[in-house]
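Supplementary material to the annual report.
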Amino acid sequence: MSGIVPAFDPATGAPGGPAGGGSTAPGLTVANRTNGGGYTVTAGARSLSISNPDAATLSTTVTKASNNSTVTVTGNTSTTPSWTAPGGGTDGESVQVKVTATKGGLTTTVAFTERVIATGLQDIALDEIDLTDGTWTLSDPDGLVDTVTFASGENTVTFNTVSGSSNYNIASGTNFRGPRWYKLLSISGQQATTAMPIVLVTRIEPDKSSGSDFNQRHVIGTSFDPTATVTNTINGAGAGWQINSGSTTIQMGAWTRSAVNLTTNSLNQRQVMASLRGFESLGSPSFLNLRSNDVCVGTGARNSNATAIGGAGANLYVMVALGTATNTAGTTAGDQAIFRASFVASSYTGI
Amino acid sequence: MPTVHIDQSQVVFEQVATKDTDGSDVDTLAFVVPVIIPLDQVPAWEAAYDPSSSSSPLAPDSRIIARAVLDGMKAAAEGD
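Predicted assembly:
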């Protein structure tokens, strides 16, 4: 017999090396976890304690089950990796945790599932609106949009030059031809319809770091015909905001069909809005306008006054529509609308 | 003489962009003053108003609505 003889068996710790002299996968144990196990955890900080008796190379990966995205693991090659377990949301979430130890071309794996329980109706998280994420469709009848980008939570829409027109002011005239992004409104995987009683909740946070490039007035809400260019055919309801040219004061409020009610306060920073609709009718969106310190500086609502608007169970969409606040001033090339926004919808039965 | 009321707690100051009675655009910062016309007062108001006559309604009737609306606006403007 020649060559190097191990001083001990890495698998058992026994002196003299592995029985028979063959290779053995490195030892690996994870405290309170077994390979193939399933566990329930709470959202937030998570960590593992790994035993790595053979000083193998460790790797810990964590993957969300809902979308296969990777969760960042701190110390992923250490014996104490940590990460932040995602929130359970209304549907629950789970992550696949995989710890591997590799040495001498051999690998030992301990993989298990950690389930994060649903939060039910409390602390419901809103879905961030990223107009560039591929889920939104842009309808821009007159080609107002030059580019749209998304960074650090903010959507930035850059406009082409367009003359002022009531067609781009959703609260003027009978037509709206401004750009709008839309997608089917899904509620926990169920398609929302005009017949279904639903509540849409939005959060908007327009950027007011510099004076507005133009007189801008925008809306976010629901519609069953988001590509319509007749405003009342869009039949929308939700949130609205406006920033006048050169101003850093945000007006925020409620939108129903071809009208908005917006409250003005120089301290306005963001808004939460809730809008009920269903039974082929529009409800009446209401809102709270907030300062950066969470103090509410304005409340309001707008009665849609719109029952039996039709739809006949048509699919509902969530829509982000941008436009102008005046009929005489349009946009010049390079003008921008910048905003953060998010939304979530819920549906109800037994009503 | 017919009466009206104001829903004072609902008087707000805001940017309102909507349509006027004739369908024309209204887009302005404004006090919005909800006027309550009791159903039993509607016949009297309708009788008092002839849209084709520039002198209708009569001054005393007009004053009822005007004073109610202006009181609502004034109270809101002064923070009462």
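The first helix of chain B runs from residue 42 to 48.
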